[in-house]
Amino acid sequence: MDAIGKAPVFPQWPQYDDEERTALIRALEQGQWWRMGGTEVESFEREFAAFHGAPYALAVTNGTHALELALQCLGVGPGSEVIVPAFTFISSSQAAQRLGAVAVPVDVDAGTYNIDVAAAAAAVTPRTRVIMPVHMAGLVADMDALAKLAADNGVALLQDAAHAQGARWQGKRIGEFGTIAAFSFQNGKLMTAGEGGALLLPDEELLESAFLRHSCGRPRTDRRYLHKVSGSNLRLGEFSAAVLRAQLRRLDAQNAVRDERWALLSGLLAGIPGVVPQSGDPRADRNTHYMAMFRVPGLGEQARNDLIDRLVAAGLPAFATFRAIYRTDAFWDGAQVAETVEQIAERCPNTEAISTDGIWLHHRALLAESEALHATAEIIAGAVTAT
Ligand SMILES: *Cc1c(COP(=O)(O)O)cnc(C)c1O
């Protein structure tokens, strides 16, 4: 254990090699730098859909736009409600609010940090149009129970799969559930072009609706400015798609490494008194581990933040978990909800806890050699003991 006392070495993120270099030159030299007439975006969409077992994919500008577009295609607008986990990145709720809809936060499970299905069921009203599970850190939410809940209530399921490129549930890939899934390719995500996003779409009708809306309502072959529906410009460019094609080729092997390293790290973390790593779910049989997450239950927010500072000083890529969405000003800026923050907090005890005692490490830590993970666990053990 000669790593003790020294900062562990972690790989850089994002990663690239000659595949990205070649791809960028190829996109540059083809002479069309947007998707119309180019081949990179279309090829990426085919490859990304096939990789996830979905009939279709549509590349877009970023993950937030992907969620907005998906909600729009599912008929969400003023008067509708979208059920979202209270513990998530703000885009999940902001996308609904941007469309004039009400985002209804519900609690998550204390161990998996995924949406609590019973809490989601309790939040369904006649105005509910969509339930949006977030596959937290790449751990697929309970898709069986959620599919039943959605079907029983006649509402759509939209997967926020920003963390879950390549994840599986009972052998099924993200594109095999028959629902729209939204992805992000922002700089930190599991595959990236700096910015970018995509939808997986289960049928041609939704693909066409999404295509029109992501291209100012204009049909693919239109030459007469006959715009069909309201929309915006959410088109991804050719350079980004070229890079994403190269990133996709690397993803499966990286997911396998992260999964293996998390088995090691979570075992080590579970052995530290006071530390509880994110639980798995045997049904989520390929977990991408976008974040290596753990809790120090009962630690207050300030003590948690101080602990993170010590971890960062020791060389770990450590961060605070998401803040409960209803505890941000942004949420209330577009909220239109009747409840107060205290009332929402009252029915979201797990979110209250995880968002104040949770810590995550960047997934590049899980691409490191196992010595670095032993050193990581020792640093965390030392820092927690000193708390
Ligand atoms: C990153 C992220 C998004 C938004 O993606 P962007 O590409 O940054 O807009 C949405 N949902 C979750 C859960 C995310 O982590």
Automatic annotation (TrEMBL):
UniProt keyword terms in alphabetical order: Pyridoxal phosphate
Out of the domains of life, which is the source? Bacteria
Q: Which InterPro entries match?
A: DegT/StrS_aminotransferase (IPR000653), PyrdxlP-dep_Trfase (IPR015424), PyrdxlP-dep_Trfase_major (IPR015421), PyrdxlP-dep_Trfase_small (IPR015422)
Cofactor(s) recorded in Swiss-Prot or TrEMBL:
pyridoxal 5'-phosphate
UniProt keyword annotation of Translocase present = no
Q: What Gene3D superfamilies does the record point to?
A: Aspartate Aminotransferase, domain 1, Type I PLP-dependent aspartate aminotransferase-like (Major domain)
User: Which CDD domains does this one have?
Assistant: AHBA_syn
Family per similarity comment: Belongs to the DegT/DnrJ/EryC1 family.
Q: What is this protein called?
A: 3-amino-5-hydroxybenzoate synthase
Source organism per entry reads Pilimelia columellifera subsp. columellifera
Q: Which gene encodes it?
A: rifK
